[in-house]
Task: inverse folding
């Protein structure tokens, strides 16, 4: 039984490290920046078309992540 408990604790530790505010806020900020770069580039209409969606996704992600514990 202790083997199962240690696996669960190890998995929980990995999930807790991934789902922290710092890395997720950094990822959301990078997505917002990518959306702004996509908006300002003059070469691809497809990137320009997806820029608003990308920026909006990053913004919503940042708002949600800001509510996650430290």
Result:
């Amino acid at each position: 039984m202790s083997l199962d408990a240690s696996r669960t604790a190890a998995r929980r530790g990995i999930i807790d490290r991934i789902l922290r505010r710092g890395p997720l806020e950094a990822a959301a900020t990078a997505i917002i920046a990518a959306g702004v770069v996509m908006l300002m580039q003059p070469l691809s209409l497809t990137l320009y078309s997806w820029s608003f969606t990308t920026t909006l996704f990053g913004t919503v992600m940042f708002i949600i992540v800001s509510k996650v514990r430290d």
